[in-house]
Design brief:
79% helix; rod-shaped; 70 residues; 3 helices; mainly alpha
Amino acid sequence: NEHVRRLLPGIEIALKLGDRLANHACAAGEYRRQLAFLAVAAAAQWTAGFNPRPVVATDFERLYEAAFTS
């Protein structure tokens, strides 16, 4: 059927994009599981000591979590 043949390329593109989005979501989930580790590492960096306000790992973790939810 001509209509089906015309739709197939669009469907194939949509399926490929869906796979890519799923891969990105998976990667985002992996990064999110690492937030606590990243927050501890950020608090240990010398640059954290130059912040005008004191910062600790939980501050960084809240910041990173906010970035994921916005």
